[in-house]
Design brief:
Number of helices: 1
Helix content: under 10%
Number of strands: 4
Shape: globular
CATH class: Alpha Beta
Bound molecules: iron/sulfur cluster
Largest sheet: 2 strands, antiparallel
Length: 68
């Protein structure tokens, strides 16, 4: 099943990726990143089709999609 990974080093927490996911699979992380911000996180039970909406809208290229 496809999934995404969000690179903590690149994500600035703008959260633009959350509303564009058709499955509501991205949320605000509960813990702080190393830079002290709440970044985006793929939900544990999140569904993903690899549609790329999130990666396309991300201004910092922080989202990588895996289709394995
Ligand atoms: S759009 Fe990119 S930079 Fe913004 S919260 Fe999502 S992953 Fe982070
Ligand atoms: S690739 Fe599409 S389905 Fe998967 S998390 Fe991103 S927006 Fe959601």
């Amino acid at each position: 099943m496809p999934r995404i990974e969000i690179n903590e080093k690149y994500c600035k927490g703008c959260l633009l990726c959350i509303p564009v996911c058709p499955f509501d699979s991205i949320e605000v992380s509960k813990s702080l990143s190393a830079y002290g911000i709440h970044i985006a996180a793929f939900k544990k039970d999140g569904k993903c089709t690899g549609c790329k909406n999130c990666a396309t809208v991300c201004p910092d290229m922080a989202i990588e999609i895996f289709k394995d």
